């Protein structure tokens, strides 16, 4: 009995922390419609800040608390709302969620940078460390009581705030109808800023309380939020009392499980699987169940939807792209060092994982936060299935994972948007904890995935594997484009654009979503099954999925090019981190930083980039000239006139900085185009002429130089060339309708027509 | 037996009685009008018929089969198709693909020909390769009609198809409706453009505050004092 009391108190105190975090989530979700995945990370940053002030700089506890909770946290919340979140109104749920993923990645990067985990640091003490109080025959730390008290105070304050103050009433009004509030003279933006500030304070409070119990570690503090998700979902992302109740239940479950599992009769394993992962999975399991018992999401007409701008590539363009990708990779693979080969290989593997999101998220509009989990399952299947990695094994692995993907999706598929995304996250965490972390699955920490066994071709080298993965990406990419142009592809788009219309036209939404999940899981499985190396469970951890999802969305999740861009950028980031240790910190926050800009360009970076190349379509002369230029640079390298590095830098410069500007230069009519060509040629000369191996002493600095060259000379060429008057090739009828006439052209027209316009 | 029979359908949103016990029949080969002031419950009734909204009480049947508990896509297979008051085109597909998706869902055989014929029929062939999200409202409404027709329906529900159409497009729509009903299609038309309603409808129901307050031929409805009161708010 006494034991039960002890564990009840422990449970309630844990629940109190969940409650404080979860209420913050609910406050922002209801006022701005954004489910903040970075909420736990905010608490983590606050805990570190408090530690800095209190234990490193020795401020008094009240002062440190005041500065952290009442100055820095609200400020952080305000800025987040103002700078990042406000631009997201009217964008898709995928983009909104991705931005919070970005924020998440950014904050973890920031914490890793400012408070690196090496070396020892001052301990994070509990409040009134060492003081305990005797309740019912047991000792309870003051910290636990304070934690519990904080939750009670938060509950009371929130209640008073929401029902007794003007701001609170305004917050509840915004929940009900944002546009109506605006019509009635309310100010939704101010309300949202207030909500974000309040939410950051709640996260901060929870983070500090939790750090007292668990010490300062980034991961548990961040994942705290998963537990809070469960409580918030129990509250329907709306009701604070139910959220608090849910949090209490979670805390108690955890504590009681701890108590019972101590008993000798408690099974340690089930059918050979160890059960040690269960305790940590309790909140996730509760989350999963809470999601599954949610009512079916309603079909509603008239929801505002944002349209992404993605053109479907023609079949010719797609094949051309796939072939050039393979040719380029084969061409440069011989020049790379072993470690750079492995990094590029990693980039392509990530690109395949990102590609798995294109049909699912890009086409069908269903968000998944678990792409890497399916890659992990693919790796496990490939290594466990008989056949030692021949093509049939690969096919079987893909099929099995695709079926698993559909099976997992089946219960979750009634959900949409954020609820679906969360259930995939819960699935990923469960698979990591209960399957990947099993001895049976990953013997002694890692397993070796056999190298794909293709008759007559030897892939048994990093270079071979690189070419294999690039080829796999190209083929899968072609498959995805073929899918987009197929019957099923049109259905996926229809599902994204208007589920109600699709349903009333006779589409079985469940079947269509299942197909999307299965295809996506199958593609992701390839990334794991083709690993051809030793792999460890950490590689497929849930937290590793987030940057991939993020960069796929940043690249443009609606297109194959976007997936390639995202994967290679993430891979390239690793190269940079490895090559230039001093840049490590920047590379840690890079994924986050790029994602935060999503609000401004929701269609992704590749759509912007391909916009630059689009005018080249059908200008075969210019395309041939560009290709010739590329071959020429390669020939310089092959004949050893320039080094591999000069080839690489020159090639990228040619492709990114010169090619998109060729049209402007060739069609230009004035002096300026000569200036533009001069700038482009100067850049090219530097790229090719410098002896990069001697002049610059590390890979990272060479890559940096490349970025600078493209940024300075590429953008310079573009600026100058774009202002040059051009000859228009479009129909003369359209001239002046969609493109303003330049003064020169106006003069010409006037002269020809003999009139003054 | 009517093509569509609605019996005592009631929909309550919390305290709001959006539809309060409606009986309504649509015959094959006829256009039936459903008119009423804003907020009368017309769209809600459409949602009940197409399966997007569960009624609080009542029953919907098509060709004598009770479909009240079927999902929207099953109802589509039974020959129900609808358009939306607030457009629901597949914005990132082309106009042609919008119609094609529907034809494919109905497992038609001659898909390309059907799509072209329907685009021609509603008069949007020239827009076939445009992205649907870029269309002006008027054309978008016509595309929604073509898309609904592509499922080969027996009953077509049109929710304010003429709003956003100019006069000539509106005339054309009237002609189109005549052609469609001549081929045996049943149409339920919600519309605020009275001249169109009076021209094309064989019979008209008037809904006010969720109740049918009048039912009859266009001539009858035009002279019904209750209808005038509902529309003008003046005591008769
Ligand atoms: N999802 C909903 N929740 C609560 N009330 C609703 C909902 N949908 C409709 N209503 C209410 O039900 C009533 C009927 O609405 P409905 O949209 O069916 O009217 P309508 O006749 O189509 O009007 P209009 O001519 O303006 O399109 C209105 O009072 C509306 O506010
Ligand atoms: Mg309506």
TrEMBL record, chain A:
Organism (species): freshwater metagenome
A cellular component term, taken from the record's GO annotations: plasma membrane
Family (UniProt): Belongs to the binding-protein-dependent transport system permease family. LivHM subfamily.
Primary localization: membrane
Biological process per Gene Ontology, one example term: amino acid transport
Keywords (A to Z) from UniProt: Amino-acid transport, Cell membrane, Membrane, Transmembrane, Transmembrane helix, Transport
Gene Ontology MF: a single term: branched-chain amino acid transmembrane transporter activity
Protein's cellular compartments: Cell membrane
InterPro entries: ABC_transp_permease, BCAA_transport_permease, LivM-like
Keyword Transmembrane found: yes
CDD domains given in the database record: TM_PBP1_LivH_like, TM_PBP1_LivM_like
Pfam family of the protein (one): BPD_transp_2
Name this polypeptide is given: Unannotated protein
Membrane topology according to the record: Multi-pass membrane protein
Listed transmembrane segments: 6-27, 34-53, 59-79, 94-115, 145-162, 191-212, 218-237, 244-260, 272-293, 314-336, 342-360, 391-410, 417-436, 514-532, 544-570, 616-636, 642-666
UniProtKB/TrEMBL annotation, chain B:
PROSITE patterns: ABC_TRANSPORTER_2
ABC transporter domain boundaries: 4-234
SUPFAM superfamilies registered for this protein in UniProt: P-loop containing nucleoside triphosphate hydrolases
Keywords linked to the UniProt accession: ATP-binding, Nucleotide-binding, Transport
GO molecular function, one term: ATP binding
One term under GO cellular component: plasma membrane
InterPro entries named among the record's database cross-references: AAA+_ATPase, ABC_AA/LPS_Transport, ABC_transporter-like_ATP-bd, BCA_ABC_TP_C, P-loop_NTPase
Translocase is among the record's keywords: no
CDD domains: ABC_Mj1267_LivG_branched
Database matches in PANTHER family: CONSERVED COMPONENT OF ABC TRANSPORTER FOR NATURAL AMINO ACIDS, CONSERVED COMPONENT OF ABC TRANSPORTER FOR NATURAL AMINO ACIDS-RELATED
Protein name listed in UniProt: Unannotated protein
Taxonomic classification: unclassified sequences, metagenomes, ecological metagenomes
